[in-house]
Every structure is written in structure tokens, then in C-alpha cells.
Amino acid sequence: MNISPDRPAPGAPSAPLGHVVFITAAAAMGGFLFGYDSSVINGAVVAIRDRFGIGPEALAQVIAAALIGCALGAAVAGRIADRIGRIRCMQIAAALFTVSAVGSALPFALWDLALWRVVGGFAIGMASVIGPAYIAEVSPPAYRGRLAAFQQAAIVIGIAVSQLVNWAILGIADGEQRGVVGGLEAWQWMLGVMVVPAVLYGLLSFVIPESPRFLISVGRTDQAKKVLAEVEGSHIDLDARTAEIEHGMRSEQKSTFKDLLGGRFGLAPIVWIGIGLSVFQQLVGINVIFYYSSSLWQSVGIDPSSSFLYSFTTSIINIIGTVIAMIFIDRIGRKPLALIGSAGMAISLGLAAWAFSFKSGTGGDITLPDAQGTVALIAAHAFVFFFAISWGVVVWVLLGEMFPGRIRTAALGVAAAVQWIANWIITVSFPPLSDWNLSATYMIYAAFALLSIPFVLKWVPETKGKALEEMDSPEVPELVAAR
User: Fold this and answer.
1) Residue 119, CB half-sphere, CA atoms under 13 Å: how many?
2) Whole-number Å distance between alpha carbons of 88 and 68
3) pLDDT in tens, 128-148
4) Which domains, ranges and CATH numbers included, belong to the chain?
5) 8, 93, 202, 454: which could form a disulfide with 126 (CB 3.0–4.6 Å)?
């Protein structure tokens, strides 16, 4: 992949990209765990329902339990990161991921499983905030969009790996989610394997540097200069670069939720824009595909092994789309990609709604005519593709870039917390909505995809090619705050 800047400074040496990419990839391991833990439950849905003898409402609550933890973790991660540093925050998240994986694999009862899911969700929430913030703060401006996209790339790879692991474990268990392998049921292994990447994330956090902005904020300027030389190149004027960051932070204090207040509607307008991005990203229904796709395809007559295969192929499409977004996000900008994705998602979801309008049967005994079944599969894959090339990457990049430095981590925490709340709403509402009217459910998601178009056109700022310090500029007055 070409990751060179579009307009390098004439005669300037290139930044040490190999080192920057390593740092970014290590930080993005939190995103990998985010994707893995969010999606691995897909392979265990049917087994958990049968093991504990629960209905669709209780099942949805268990699946969505992690999202409560996600919202809590996202809400506090910014303050934790500002107090003890980005790296320590990553290490806490890694420990929580590890504990959650072990607990989820060995639950005593349904409430116990839900509790460990909440713990894992707290770690996901922390990773969803600290990853984009850290990557934005260590990335040179010319590369930042593509490097920030590593977070989403890691998320979709985590989703794909979880589906692949689930499929492999299912094969070992002779196609039975409750088949016994080594004394545990297959679904328990699915949830427990996350220990491996969780430990790796923790180990990597010990070998990457702290954010230079955090180091400057706590008076460790010499160490900050060393990190800046590592990530932006030794050719830069370190004193001038440090002074630039200090200037941007002069009026700053540790960001708190109080700092987000302003404007006519309680919060500063830029914070509302971040919340809007987070809400639209979830209300198009993307996580329905990743949480329920296996059980959804089984419900329309596809056998379990094939349903897992289709779930994995959507993950591959997700990765391909994310790579495309990484290539183009610094070339054509954030807003054009978001608009392309919104239009594509609306069409795809509309086609899925049309196909599901032909379903017959109720509950778990649903069938589709062959033609409509094919359209539903193609539409689902197209929906994932358009999401991946746009909102999957663009939202995380924008959330890491567009907030002023004095409120960045707190604002990102609020936006991410709202994102998880919206995710929870979609997750718990899908089973009863799909039982009521599956076609209408997909039409609701299509309507949100359409509504996201005027939202992007009117309110979302373009941050392509801008230094983070420019977000503090008075040249963005109405977006930053109504003062």
C-alpha cells in the first residue's frame, strides 16, 4: 500500500514511517480486540440460547451486555488517559480483556456470563477512545488519515479472525456449537481464545512510546522531543515543534465533561457533530450483521456451516473495503467517502428489505425464495462493503482529529459512549423487531443511511491535511464552540 504523503515538503526527508507504522499497529491491537470481542459472540448465540434455555429478549440482553460496559469504558477512558497517560490506559484495557476472556469461557450461570461480557465491554470502550486519540497524537499530519485508519483496519481484522476462529472450532466440534472439545463446549473455546491477543496487546503496550502531547502536558518535555524525533523525523525543529504543541495547550487544562459545555443546546456544536457521527454509524444497523448474521442466515434455511462461511465472507469484504478507505481517505477526503458510503448503504439496505419482504414462516422457521435469498446475501455483502469504505473508517478518523486539543479526549469519550449506547439499542431491538417485521427493520436502517447524507453535507467538517493544532484555530468558530 502506498502510504507516502500526497504533497511532501520539497527537499524534506521522509518521516520514519516504518517505526510510526509499528507504533500505530501496536496501539491498534486494542481495535483488534474491540472487533474480536464484539463479533466473537456471533458464533455462540445459538449455543448460549440452548445452554441456558432463554428466549430472544433475554438472549439479546446477554449479547448486548458488553455494550453497557463499552459505554462506561468510553465515558471514563479520556479522563483516565489524561491523568495517567495513554499507555497505562492501554495496559488496563489489556488486563480487562484477558480477565473477561477467561470469565466468559467459564461461566457458572447466565448472570455470570453477562457480567464478564460487561467487563470485556469496559475494555472495548477504553480501547475505542484511547486508540484513535493516541494514533492521532503520534502521527505526522501528512499520514494521519491513513494511520488513523489502522484502528478500523484492526477492528475489521479482529472481526474476521473471530469468525475464522469460530468456524475452525466449529469444525473441530463436528459442526456443533455445543460439541465438547477438551472438556469445554465449542462456544466456550470461541470466547476464551481472546486471551491470546489480549496478552499480546498488553506486551506491545510496554514497547511503544507515550504520546508526546501527554508528555508535554505533564512537564516531560525532553522525553516528548525524543518521541517527536522518532515519529516525525530528526530533520524537524524539535524546539519549534514542541513550542507549537505547547502553544496549542496553553489555554488547556485536563479535559473534563464541563469543558464540553457551550452553545444553545448544552454541548458545544463540535461535540454534537461527534455524537451525530457516532449515532449514524450505529443506526444503519451494521452490527446486526456482525452479531446476528450466523443465526439470521440459519433462520432463513442456510445450514450452520454455510452460515458461518457467509459470516466470514462479510468479514473479508469488510477488510477489503477498509483497505480501500485507507488508500483514499487522505486523497479524496473524509466527507466524500462518507457520502459515497451513505448512498451505497441506503441502496443495499433497501434491497435487503425488499428481499426479506418475501419471507414465509415465523420464528426460527423462516424461508426465502431462491431469488430473494440470493439478493439478500448480495445486499448484505454490499452493505458491509459500503460501510467499510466510508463510515467504518471515516468516523474514527474524524473523532480522533476534529475536536480541539483542550477537549479532545473528553469529547471523544462522550462520542464513543453515545456510539455504544446506540449500538446497544440496535442490538437489543433487532430480535423483537425482526420477529415483528424483518423487512421493515431493514427499511428503518435504510432510512438512517439516507438521513446521514444531509447531516454530513451540512455539519461535518473536512479535516483532510490539517494539523491537530489547527482544530484549535479561531478559524473554525461555529464548529468548535459558540462562545
Assistant:
1) 18
2) 23
3) 788 888 888 888 777 777 787
4) 17-208+251-480 (1.20.1250.20)
5) 93
CA Rg value for the chain: 22
Counting residues of the chain whose pLDDT is more than 90, the rounded percentage is 22
Rounded mean pLDDT, 297-309: 59
- Distance (Å, rounded) from C-alpha 100 to C-alpha 450? 37
Residue 282 to residues 33, 118, 420, 427: CA-CA distances in angstroms? 19, 19, 8, 10
H/E element holding 361?
A: strand 360-362
C-alpha cell at 472: 484549535
| Contact status, residue 393 vs residue 326, Cβ threshold 8 Å | yes
Task: Give the whole-angstrom CA distance, residue 336 versus residue 267.
Answer: 27
- pLDDT (mean) for 163-177: 84
* Full DSSP string of 90-138: HHHHHHHHHHHHHHHHS-SSHHHHHHHHHHHHHHHHHHHHHHHHHHHHH
More reliable by pLDDT, 343 or 75: 343
Torsion angles phi and psi, residue 209, rounded to 5: -80, 160
Tell me the sheet residues that pair with 267.
261
Better pLDDT: 154 or 280: 280
| Whether the predicted pLDDT of 15 surpasses 60 | no
Burial class (CB in 10 A: 0-12, 13-18, 19+), 324: middle
Whether 213 and 246 have beta carbons less than 8 Å apart is answered as: no
Residues 6+ apart with CB under 8 A from 392: 152, 155, 156, 281, 286, 318, 321, 322, 325
| Residue 362, φ and ψ in degrees, nearest 5 | -135, 165
As a whole number, the mean pLDDT across the chain is 80
